[in-house]
């Protein structure tokens, strides 16, 4: 069984361990009419493990909870329930020196470097500040030498050190953001949509840079993305997220090569280099986490559910979203392992529906 699926067996070889983690945001109670305060279930019972040196991808649409999960991993959010462990240490409750040590070990690279870099600081000041915060390479000369080494690693030179973010191109800004993340010698990088804000011509350069750094620095990657092509290129294992939960999870070759969940199949169909043969393209938008549908949370948009309802009308019910299987509407599905245990799909009919082969680009 894949290491990514051993969700109940912690191991010292795991860089990141996430066990049944949830993060709920409670809104304000209605001013009139009473009632309880609304609860947004941004992350709802997610588990996965990432061995050292691996790349685990989290993929899904905007609003699925990917970025909230990324912030839970680095300690910017605290879980409502469950546990996040980095290098065997629980993240929740850390403060002071312990939290600073964690943040040196696991670093976050955000989607838009224009927003993540301080516009009032030069590239050198940004990188030096990280060393000063963590007390590394004391002395101006030592810090300058470390900054120069990291600049060379990310493909920038001394001419960029005195520039402000607005004086850099998009690719150069993201290289500077990556330099800031690796300058303190972390073990894990959480990459939240690291190339989606860049021009297509620059994306391949940054992806290749990240893969080179992963190899040369022995890094573990957790990558947050909606790009299935990027997942296939970079990741070892993947979790497909919908409304705060993983609906399919396993090794990339199985999840992307023969997806079993209708949502994964639809994402593959929407991917520009797979085509419609991978499954039906989704219609509509993802529901609000304030009002997660009953039963299977995907039933309001599931193309496979409509086909199944037509095949077995006696077991179907009418809903505002069409005629759907009663089981999909009323019962929350349990994870179903694939034969051989290389992936799991949270779908009532995962074994009844044929896995859709996803053609790969030439």
From TrEMBL:
It is found in: Cell inner membrane. Pfam families: ABC_tran (PF00005), oligo_HPY (PF08352). The keyword Nucleotide-binding applies. SMART domains: AAA. It is a peripheral membrane protein. GO terms for biological process: peptide transport; transmembrane transport. GO terms for cellular component: plasma membrane. It comes from the Bacteria. Transmembrane segments: none annotated. The keyword Nucleotide-binding applies. Keywords: ATP-binding, Nucleotide-binding, Transport. Belongs to the ABC transporter superfamily. This is Oligopeptide ABC transporter ATP-binding protein.
